[in-house]
Amino acid sequence: MKKYKIVIDTNVIVSSLLSKKGFSYKLLSIIDDERIELFISVPVILEYEDAIKREKTNIKLKKSEIDDFLDFICLTGKQRKIHYLWRPFLKDRKDDMFLELAVESESDFIITFNKIDFEGIEYFGIKTLTPKEYLKVIGEIK
């Protein structure tokens, strides 16, 4: 089975913590699967943490559980250092850190709900997929 290299956008991370019923939760529940190679960077992890804390009132987890979740992402993901910055490329400057990570790690996909925010990344050979689309690609759902 093919292993796909991925970068996960913040909206998918937050969504996975808001509900156990969605495709984001399903994806994060199998993130250590052999079919998935997750890439992270320090700026991306800090962005995840910031977004989760902003949603704290809607996320029904204790601070220690959130810390454990982020630790798990850090342990599971392969860290990359970004040595070049050619910003801005995307409309939203915060999204550039995900594109830079995807390019540096030679990722196949950026997993996001906001595909329109990543218009033009095909230039780098990277595609955007929603969590549901990605789960279909790896055969997790039909």
What does this structure look like?
With 142 residues, the chain is of the alpha/beta class. The protein has one domain: 5'-nuclease (Rossmann fold, 3-Layer(aba) Sandwich), CATH 3.40.50.1010. 44% of the residues lie in helices and 13% in strands. It contains six helices and five strands. The protein has a five-stranded parallel β-sheet, sandwiched between helices. Helix 1 (10-18) crosses helix 2, helix 2 (23-29) crosses helix 6 and helix 3 (42-54) runs antiparallel to helix 4. The radius of gyration is 14 Å and the shape is globular. The relative contact order is 0.21.
Fourth-tier CATH superfamily name: 5'-nuclease
Helix content: 40-55%
Oligomer: single chain
How do the strands line up in the largest sheet? 3-2-1-4-5
CATH T-level fold name: Rossmann fold
Query: Sheet bearing the most strands, described?
Result: 5 strands, parallel
Overall pLDDT: 92
Rough shape? globular
User: Which consecutive residue ranges, at least 5 long each, have pLDDT under 50?
Assistant: none
